[in-house]
Amino acid sequence: MKNSFLFLLILYFVTKPALLLANEAEIWLEKEIDIILNAYQNENLPNENRFLMVEQTINNNFAGAGIAKFVVGKAWNSANKETKKDYIKHFKRHLALNIASMMQGYSHQKYSLINSRFDEKSKVTMIDMEIYSEASSIVVTWRLKESKNRFFVIDLLVADISLVVTKRSEFNSMLKTVDYNLSNFNEKLKSQNEKSYEKIIK
Amino acid sequence: MKIIKKKIFIFLFVVLSTNIYAAASDEVKTESQDYQTSGTDDEIYDPLEPINRAIFGFNNFADKIVLEPVAKGYKNIPTPIQSGISNFIGNLKMPLVIVNQLLQGQGKNAVESSGRFIVNSTVGLLGLVDVADKMGLEEKEEDFGQTLATWGLGDGFYIVLPLFGPSNLRDTTGMVLTYVSDPINAYAIREGEEWLLPLRTATNAVDQRSRIIDEVNALRNNSVDYYAAVRSSYYQNRKAAIDNTDDNILTPLPLISIEFE
User: Fold this and answer.
1) Does the ipTM exceed 0.95?
2) How far apart are CA A192 and CA A196, in angstroms?
3) Which residue of chain A is at minimal alpha-carbon distance from B211?
4) Which residue among A32, A114, B22, B83 is the one 20 to 30 A from B224 at the CA level?
């Protein structure tokens, strides 16, 4: 009896921080998603301003520089400081454009956070968000990491497809054509961003 | 006094050093492990890449001028009709889903799928209404490609099939097996109604495409290499289907450092 009580007590203290963290992350994520959705719900907002709002929210909440470094793989090492800085700037815009583009079909769909869990090994919190449309629903999984007492989004999975892994594969394919030269790649990324931006604000 | 001065100096040095470190933390630090992935294959075996890219270009063109506009039109029809079509097509797949679940040793899933098929084919008006889902019999898809993978067969090389899109050697084999063993197809051929086969395939393609209009457009409009993005997405999606990952735990976790955010 005494042993079972002790076991339950230990179990409580071991699992409590993980549960608290997942719960805290859920509240934080819901707040940030609503900021983005509000930008889309306001139909009077010009597309340019809407995108800037989304970009700001993404820049504040995504681990943009970390993701940028990861997706460019081995090309990072050989680049100089200025090129890296330039690349991170272009990548952050690229990330915002990708997410804003996904949001373009938004038509007041409802969503709910259906499941959250904390992976002790990787220290990553995963939150499933179900987005409901009239005919079907889709699950988006957010992967968050805590740093300096706040959360950062490190990846987004739509139908089991990771945005970060896809970007890494895509960038790797393009980097091959420029001999893994980050400076040349920056030109291509910048040009793609300009094209995407034109479509977003249209 | 000297000791106090020394202590103040040490205190100031520590405090200022922390600020120096904080500023430094804004810079990106590089560690070799940052380039590694946890189980992610950066390189997909694609020896036919030039041919695949050409077929991909053709498919992309066909998608833009035919499939996407039809899928957008399909999305405008009343939701109950869309759901009915989707449920009907899904129900027709069930006999082969059950076979594949049995071949993969998923006895419990096969029993549930059989229950789904019986309930939806009868109470659900030939599969038009998904009554089984409301009874807790969830839809789980399995195909021959997944079965071959479960039996240990590797992906083989990547192939882009004309009109059918991304695949690999194993999944193409699975697709052929599906086509030749499907009882509904066999029935249509036996009855001399072969025209039903392409109609079924086309309806399925439109139904599937209508669900991912925004996602495909986001990928197409923002990719620096759309071909590579689709190839990676295909592999990730198939891997999750083969592993039957419901909670994304097994989906590779990128090693991302955020200490410099």
Assistant:
1) no
2) 6
3) A136
4) A32
Q: Give the whole-angstrom CA distance, residue A64 versus residue B51.
A: 35
B81 touching A, CB under 8 A? Answer: no
Average pLDDT along chain B: 82
**Domain with A131 in it: what CATH number?**
3.10.450.710
pLDDT tens figures, B71-128: 999 988 998 899 899 999 999 999 999 999 999 999 999 999 999 999 999 988 888 8
pLDDT given for residue B148 in this prediction: 96
Which of chain B's residues have a Cβ under 8 Å away from the Cβ of A74? 35
Residue type at position B198 = P
Q: Which residues numbered 207-246 in B keep a CB inside 8 Å of some CB on A?
A: 211-215, 217-219, 221-225, 227-229, 231-233, 236-237, 239-241, 245
Domain ranges of chain B: 44-243
| pLDDT < 70 regions, chain A | 1-21, 135
pLDDT of residue A83: 95
Cβ–Cβ gap A168/B247 under 8 Å: no
- Number of domains making up chain A: 1
Contact B261 A152 (CB under 8 A): yes
Q: Which domain holds residue A25?
A: 2-201
Cβ pair B258:A147 closer than 8 A: yes
Q: Report pLDDT digits (tens) over A55-100.
A: 999 998 999 999 999 999 889 988 999 999 999 999 999 999 998 8
Instruction: Tell me the whole-structure pTM to 2 decimals.
Output: 0.81
- Chain A CB contacts of B229 below 8 Å: 166-167, 169-170
Distance of CA B189 to the CA centre of its chain: 31
**Shortest CB distance from B256 goes to which of A70, A166, A172?**
A70
Residue B79: which residues within 8 A CB-CB, separation 6 or more?
A134, A135
User: Which of B248, B249, B255 would best serve as a mutation to test chain A binding (most A beta carbons within 10 A)?
Assistant: B248
Per-residue pLDDT at B3 exceeds 80 = no
Residue B15: band (very low, low, confident or very high) from pLDDT cuts 50, 70, 90: very low
pLDDT, one tens digit per residue, over B61-79 is 999 999 999 999 998 899 8
Query: What contacts 24+ positions apart, CB below 8 Å, involve B91-96?
Result: B91/B117, B91/B120, B91/B121, B91/B124, B91/B126, B91/B127, B92/B127, B92/B184, B92/B200, B93/B141, B94/B120, B95/B182, B95/B183, B95/B184, B96/B143, B96/B144, B96/B178, B96/B181, B96/B182, B96/B183
